[in-house]
Amino acid sequence: MQTLNALVAITGDRNNMVWKIGLTPAEILLLQSLHGADAVNQIEPSGEVQREPYAEITRLKELYPNYHERVQNIWRDYPGPAFPLRLEQISLNSALLKPAEASAPYKVSAKQA
Question: Residue 109 domain-assigned?
Fold first, then answer.
């Protein structure tokens, strides 16, 4: 399962943003349902984790105990093999992804400029 990093605007408020690391595609769907479709942005891949879909649903229920029903809806909407293991499987607006050039190291230092 792919892991991701992203900025989350709490309740959709762009003045109240939190950097979250180690998110999964299913967790991004959950955060979008909690805070708004455009509240999760600057999404970038960060790695991989070995976790089965059922284990991910259990982890999300423990991490977000007040939102069991919303977590269960992810399982309902993405049953069995359709469960999102990779970012490409959740059909995000490309504007929510971190631009590729933003993650590349700067080639000119402040001293050289």
Answer: no
